[in-house]
Write a structure and sequence with these properties.
It is built from 16 helices and no strands. By secondary structure, the protein is mainly α. The longest helix is centred in the middle third of the chain and has 27 residues.
Length: 412
């Protein structure tokens, strides 16, 4: 009778039975290693929130401050979504800060000087943003000028036009309807309670949507024999997502409810997230950013995709410009300064790669929230603006360094 023991080959990570007999800690470690880019900034964001919650004596997560955090960073988050898509495509856009200022200036001229109804003026300025993005996209995609040069020229051009339109002066105020979009909250409905009823309802809808989406994604992974996390970790992930949404909902509902601009951000996140994950257009953006030569050989219309990416960035920059101008109730020649740097930093902190082809829309939001919580928390504890810039620079350097290390680890 032979004493040899036949060893079965180890099952792949997503195969059924993987994880049996292993501890939860080991499975969690494997999941983090396999998704380090996706989960790294989530852990960092949670750590930063906990740190400043302790440091500020609980002020960071006060309902009023959470609402202010959303309002203060809304325009940067809008820009970060567009910038993430631009970077995934392998390009950069340095003009978005100047374009937001120009849109605010044109909106002020139309609404304040010309007395054009604000919905009409909003439509016209969004079209102007699309035209500006299309112009830059044409030079980049069809003429072949590098995006760095084109958008640097756009930055100077749009900033100069802003000065011309405003004649160096601040112009306002904006109509109350537009102000409510940037600063307003959802109306109160239903019986009087200690919470904002409509916000609670939307939070519950979001929880149901997230659970169904996660279950659907897991089912699809199983159907196509793709890698999936063990059931225990999947349940923990769902529990964590539900807990985060529930806490955020209760905090917002304890004050004035969900800000209107938060619904705009949610619509952008869901819409662009779906396009980038499931639509052909989104996969083409990843293709040209990941390997342009291979994308061309596969039949991807790279010029058309690049043109569309910058047109989309122009529209989102225009939307951010309207939100910013309405929030401060005035258009200023100095508006939008360094917005492009904030948006680029949010994209890279959120997992974008310098070489293109990597990143998610949700990652852009996470990166923007990391910067927003850092700014808000440091202001609450009285950190000077000089040290704030130093700390944000170190955070950006650490995020890019993590990306480089992750690539080397994967290559090894």
């Amino acid at each position: 009778m032979s004493s040899e023991v036949t060893t079965q080959p180890e099952a792949p990570a997503g195969a059924p039975g993987r994880g049996k007999g292993r501890g939860l800690g080991a499975m969690l470690l494997d999941a983090v290693r396999q998704n380090s880019r996706q989960y790294g900034m989530l852990f960092a964001l949670g750590l930063i929130v906990v740190l400043f919650q302790i440091w500020t004596g609980g002020d960071l997560l006060l309902p009023r401050n959470v609402s202010n955090l959303v309002l203060q960073n809304s325009y940067i988050l809008i820009l970060a979504i567009g910038m993430m898509i631009v970077i995934i495509a392998g390009h950069i856009d340095l003009s978005v800060g100047s374009l937001t200022a120009l849109v605010g200036a044109v909106a002020a001229v139309l609404m304040v000087q010309q007395q054009i109804p604000w919905p009409v003026a909003v439509a016209l300025t969004l079209l102007m943003g699309a035209a500006a993005g299309a112009l830059q996209g044409f030079f980049i995609a069809y003429i072949g000028i590098p995006s760095f040069i084109v958008t640097l020229a756009g930055m100077l051009l749009f900033r100069g036009l802003t000065e011309i339109f405003l004649d160096g002066q601040t112009m306002g105020p904006f109509p109350s309807g537009l102000q409510k979009v940037a600063n307003g909250f959802l109306p109160e409905v239903g019986p009087a309670t200690n919470y904002h009823n409509l916000t609670l309802l939307l939070g519950l809808v979001l929880i149901v949507f997230v659970i169904l989406q996660e279950v659907r994604d897991r089912r699809r992974q199983r159907e196509f024999s793709l890698q999936e996390v063990p059931p225990t970790l999947f349940a923990l992930k769902l529990a964590a997502l539900v807990a985060v949404i529930l806490v955020a909902t209760l905090l917002l509902a304890s004050y004035k409810g969900a800000p209107v601009v938060l619904l705009i951000l949610a619509a952008l996140l869901v819409g662009f997230g779906y396009v980038m994950r499931n639509a052909v257009a989104g996969r083409h953006v990843y293709a040209i950013g990941g390997n342009l030569g291979a994308a061309k050989l596969s039949g991807v219309k790279d010029k058309r995709v690049t043109f569309a990416v910058f047109l989309n960035m122009g529209v989102l920059a225009a939307l951010a410009g309207l939100v910013f101008a309405a929030r401060f109730n005035a258009a200023s020649p100095k508006a939008g300064i360094n917005f492009e740097l904030e948006a680029i930093a949010a994209a890279f902190i959120g997992g974008a790669s310098m070489s293109g082809g990597v990143g998610t829309v949700l990652g852009a939001i996470i990166g923007g929230l990391v910067l927003g919580v850092l700014n808000n928390g440091m202001n609450l504890v009285g950190v000077g603006t000089d040290w704030q810039q130093v700390i944000k620079g170190l955070v950006l350097l650490a995020a890019v360094g993590f990306d480089v290390w992750n690539k080397r680890r994967a290559g090894g």
